[in-house]
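Q: Hi! First time doing this. I have a protein sequence and I read that you can turn it into a structure. Is that right? Here it is:
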Amino acid sequence: MKKVSLIAAAVTTALMAGSVYAEDVALDVTSGDEAMEVEVKNPTEVIADGWEVHGYMSSNVRVVDGKTVDTEFGKPDYKTAGTHGKSTNQVEFVVKKHSEYQNGVWADYVLRTEYGNGNSYAYSSEGGQKQNTDSQFEVKEAFVELGGVLGEDTSIWAGQRYLNRAAGILSGEFWKQSSGVGAGIQTKLGGNTAGMAYTMADTNDSINNGTDRATLSSFDLYYYGVDAGIGSLDFDLKYGQQALDGENDDGFGAAVTLNTSYYGLDGWTQNAIAYGKGVMQNRGVNFGNWSGGDDNAESLFLTSYGVLNISEKWQLGTEVVYFTALDQLFGAEGLTRYMVAARPSYKLNDNVRLEATASYGHEEGDEGYWSRTGDALESNILNLEIATAFTANSDYFGRPQVKPYISYIKADDEASAGIIGIDNGDDEFVFGVHTEIWF
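A: Yes, that's right. Below is the predicted 3D structure, encoded as structure tokens:
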């Protein structure tokens, strides 16, 4: 037998026997009077391994007339932008296992769990907190991503995840994401990030009420980081379908995002325009179990938000949103929403930040939309808030923080006030303490 054959046989025997997982192997191969020592490295040997634990907490102690309330005063609909979100005690943990292998492959396992998002009740610490089954402990992400298998700059993933999320800094609303179970591939093209993904999501109605399944799906294409001279451009394109009564509704959405300075000044902004039709009517690129729509559904969405660094002490966060039906939006003819919001922030010292928030939100639609008539056809909502943030770092996004606040919400009439959860009159005061940490 030739020397090359002997070596190949020895290597094959060693690997097939699984004799090594973390150690190099030295083989003594003899042919005639000659001897050779061959060092064989296990290509799947783990050369780096580690765990990361991250998390988030948002606790909002809100008091309205001495009691808790199950309303966010129109915040999810771009009507207000105060701190008065209703999650009384939201906790999130992200556990990530990262491994690197001898052959250049790497692997991430990500698990994200969440408790209490959207809950408005103030539970006692008695252990019996599952009487209200909404927004309890949930697994939000559980996926594996493998890199280097199909090339140095390429990774593949599968599982449940949020993909490519983006949210306004004052509304807190995610306008872009693909939330569900799926798979995808991401790589580099021309030095920029490119990817495609397929994501599925079943509707809450079919999950909770046992109705026939109406599974939604989204096929995503994205290309991020394109140099635009004044910043970078991100491109998103999504095609969606929903299986209904043996037939498929479909639709598509597209968005372009410009990441740049604060309108030429010191700071940053994200500026986006998105179009959505049919199943993808909800801001074009916001996919999840809330998606859906027929051929009449068509919308346009524009937003711009960011932070201006005015001086060493002063910063300003702003957000502008415009969301309108080009035909119908969420079944409503002529539905239009827009909001402008600003939050100046002053660093009193390293650990105290003073904030004020002002927002103006508007909603209107054609006569009879969602059975509304008269004063309910148009809403104008003013939100004013003052707060003091006690924090370990008084930067605009300094966390952790404990932030007492007073928020005043004023509607143009009682019909508009009732829509956002104000029971008596056309205005409301909210007193609260918001606690938040990212780690």
